[in-house]
């Protein structure tokens, strides 16, 4: 028997947040967790996919992420924030800093959307050149992708 409630709690998610991530009604998730409504194998898989951390998604699709960044003119991609620290949760986003030459800036604008679609999580991409002095700690904490 599937214990979705225990899996959700291990992932550190509320019912409301998991419902949002999985794209299902909170009342349905509650019914699945309590056993009031049977849950199909396909729905279990959908809910479990929503509980995957961004770092796991990045690890699985690293090559594709690097290809998208490179194709769009980005170089030297680095991860910062919760994924870089190793404390991301399924509700976390993915933060990436890259170098982009000025002549590639327009080509690069679609990168966050492409990465979000690929990974199924929100991705923020900032350029090193665009960082202000007060944000330089990002570079110190960033780890190579």
Count of separate structural domains: 2
CATH class of the largest domain: Alpha Beta
- CA(first)-CA(last) distance: 38 Å
Summed up, the helix count is 10
Which regions contain 5 or more consecutive residues with pLDDT less than 50?
none
The helix/strand series, from N terminus to C terminus, equals: HHHHHHEHEHHEHE
Computed Rg = 18 Å
What is the mean predicted local confidence, pLDDT?
Answer: 93
As a percent range, the share of helical residues equals 40-55%
Number of strands: 4
Can you identify the CATH superfamily of the largest domain?
Beta Polymerase, domain 2
Percent of residues in beta strands?
A: 5-15%
Q: Could you give the order of strands across the largest sheet?
A: 3-2-1-4
Q: Biggest β-sheet, characterized?
A: 4 strands, mixed
CATH fold descriptor of the largest domain:
Beta Polymerase, domain 2
Gross morphology: elongated
CATH architecture of the largest domain: 2-Layer Sandwich
Given helix and strand content, the structural type is alpha+beta
Family: Belongs to the MntA antitoxin family.
InterPro entries: Cro/C1-type_HTH (IPR001387), Lambda_DNA-bd_dom_sf (IPR010982), NT_sf (IPR043519), Polymerase_NTP_transf_dom (IPR002934), Type-VII_TA_antitoxin (IPR052038)
Pfam families: HTH_31, NTP_transf_2
Cofactor: Mg(2+)
Topology, pairings included?
Layout: H1 4-10, H2 15-22, H3 26-34, H4 41-50, H5 54-60, H6 62-71, E1 74-80, H7 82-85, E2 94-100, H8 105-108, H9 111-119, E3 123-127, H10 137-141, E4 143-144
Parallel strand pairs: 2-3
Antiparallel strand pairs: 1-2, 1-4
